[in-house]
Task: structure prediction
Amino acid sequence: MVLTRYPYKSVSPNRVLIPGQFGFCTVAEYASYTLAVASGTNITITADSSGTGGNDLDFQATADGNAKASCTITFGTDTLAISHNDAGTAKNGLVVTLVPGGTAGSEVATEDASGNLLVSYQASTSTTTQVAAAINGHANWVCPTTGTQTATGVLSGTTSGGTAATWAEESGTPTKLHLHFTDASTDVDAAVAALNGASSVMTASGSGSHTLASGDAVAKQDLSGGVDAVAFDDDSVEGEGFSVARSGAAGVGEYTVTLDRHYDKLFCADATLQLSSAADQYVLAGTYDSSAKTIKFTVWDKSAGAAGDPTQGANKRIHFLLICEN
Amino acid sequence: MAMLKDAQTTQDGIAFLHGSFRPNGSSAVDNDNNEGTGFTVARGGTGTFTITFSDKWTGLIAAGASLQLASADDKFVELGAFTLASKTLVINVWDVSDAAVADVASNANNKIHFWVCYNYRS
Result:
């Protein structure tokens, strides 16, 4: 169907209508995750490389700092779980040795000059509970294991797993940065320092002497918000008599329309946002500069309370109509 | 009375269509209440309206929409999908406080105003 068309009239002389629309582009954004620290400044972990690849990175925080060094020794079919009483890394690498030759019920635990633990027991007679009791009798060691098993021969284990109050590790594919902290002891400064010392692909930020609490721990979390840059596509422009370019800072959906010629006045500027899925965003006309022949349009994100970039895609555009004086 | 003058555009072969329609709550739009010619409107769901144009179209240059309410409210309209093959343009009503699309009650002063500028030449 073709409608009859009529000349366009205006109540004012010399009016020029300039309609147009254009799509969005995106700037590269860095993926990040913010750990909410209840007592004060949050810690933000940001991917070192921009783009969507950063969204694959993970972060985790657990309140398991200051772990104690420990080892296990198989005793019959029981497993003696032996820990040093001092937290930290200093007690890693100590050797716990069970040596036959003692007397059941009178097992003896002693340390050598290096802090290694020697426990004498009676082969085939001393029980798990009796050996553990001897270890518990030493001021520096603990063994909660109980049982009636017996054993023979020299048995030994080497302690490991003792950790600092605050430490971090980076591992796995995709890469996970894992913060280990101590409740009411690790402060934000220490956590950030540990994270930055451990990571080669992420950077932590935040500062303060307030401490993390157990409630600040989080299971594995994905970093998010990484965006690949998409250059502005001139082919997305509909309309004539102007050009469009992205302007403004990264992450701010500001575009500048430059008119091909000078107009004495801008009488009216109307702009409407088109989104493929409705959202609480709208577009605002900004500064008009008659000498530069430019007008800015900015997308406002209502829920974020700030200017923002819609993602690039079909049916995502800014439409405008400028009415100027020729 | 002011004498009407010819207006100009920066592009040849384009036409403007202006119109308005009355939302009707959760019911279908009554096209007898439309202002303007060359289109009809159908409610496609909560706060979603599809305008179907009848003129020959070869492309959409630009469009705009605004919401008229008898009582001011925290709603605004935005454009949705445009489909050239069917000559349809979706307009959504967004309710800020509900953070969702929303219907607008029927009222003589509750209207969605819109304009489109389109190519009519092949």
